[in-house]
Amino acid sequence: MSEGSYKQFCPVAMASEILCTRWTLMLLRELLLGTSRFNDLRRGLPRMSPALLSKRLKGLEAAGVLMRSKPAKGSDLYEYTLTEAGLALKPIVDAVGDWGHRWITTKATLAHLDVDLLMWNMRRKINPTPLPKGRSTIQIVYRDLPAAKRIWWLLVEPGQEADLCSVDPGYDVDLYVTTDLRTMTEIWMGYATIARAKTEKRLMLSGDRQLEATLQIWLGSSRFAQMEKRVA
């Protein structure tokens, strides 16, 4: 796993050789959130090259942090699951995120906007409980992005994992959301509310009134959104 040994018997140094290589903590974040397929890991890590992702997975497997298996007979798709050692890293990864949210400035955080990561995170945190029965289709338009990244669709159905599409799925849209990437990121991170963004004309909603009224509930937010932030 190591890309350069510290050559120290100290446990901090030994753990760092496994955990502190580029992208490794973010990969562990995705695995701890339940992502298990290679292509899904890529969606959660859109700026990580497939070659480096494969290398990090092999390194973590060799270190005993994860296991690779084929879930179905005859399937060519591997699944990656954390071992006991891997699951024990959850409080460490959470603590790094907690520190980053509290002590990294809002300005620095919002300097790294990423619509792919934002939409992927939003998809997995959606709470379908307050939504109407049957499928709900939500279209989100980022007016400040180029055409290839501007329009996204969320398909939500009670009891099922939400689907995310960047190509029109062909369903009638129940709720239209028009905004800019910074505003939606601020809402997701807890820096702004939907009500405030609407008042400031940075977020516009049209369509199903139940979906609109409960948006703040079913959309969810980052796990860090409720934490106190020590620096602005």
Summarize this entry quickly.
With 232 residues, this protein is an alpha+beta fold. The chain is built from 13 helices and 7 strands. It is globular.
Can you walk through the features of this model?
A hairpin with a 6-residue loop joins strand 4 and strand 5. The protein has helices at 11-19, 24-32, 38-44, 50-62, 84-87, 90-103, 106-109, 115-125, 147-150, 181-189, 194-199, 209-213, 215-219; strands at 66-69, 79-82, 136-142, 151-156, 163-165, 175-179, 204-207. It is built from 13 helices and 7 strands. The strands form 2 sheets. A 5-stranded mixed sheet has the order 5-4-3-6-7. The chain has a two-stranded antiparallel ribbon with strand order 1-2. With 232 residues, the protein is an alpha+beta fold. It has 2 domains: 11-103, Winged helix-like DNA-binding domain superfamily/Winged helix DNA-binding domain (Arc Repressor Mutant, subunit A), CATH 1.10.10.10; 108-219, Nonspecific Lipid-transfer Protein, Chain A, CATH 3.30.1050.
